[in-house]
Amino acid sequence: MRRFWIFNHYATTPKTGPLLRHYYFAEYLKEKDIETTVFAANELHQTGTSVDTMGKPYLRTEEEGVPFVFVKTSKYRGNGISRVFNMLSFFFGLLRISKKYARQYGKPDLIMGSSAHPLTSIAGILVARRFHVPVIVEVRDLWPEAIFSFGKVKMESLVGRALSAGEKWMYVHADAIVFTKEGDVDHIKEMGWDTAHGGKIDLKKCHYVNNGVKLDDYYRSIQEDVLPDPDLEDDSFKVVYTGTLRPVNNVDNLLDTAKLLQDHKDIRFLIFGSGNQLERLKKRAEDEHLDNVKLKGYVEKKYIPYILSRSSVNILNYSQSHYNWSRGNSSNKLFEYMASGKPIISTVKMGYCILDKYQCGLSLEECTPRALADMILKIHDMPEDTYAQMAVNAREGAKDFDFSVLTERLYQVIKSVEKD
Question: What are the structural domains of the chain?
Answer without folding.
Answer: 2-212+402-417 (3.40.50.2000), 215-400 (3.40.50.2000)
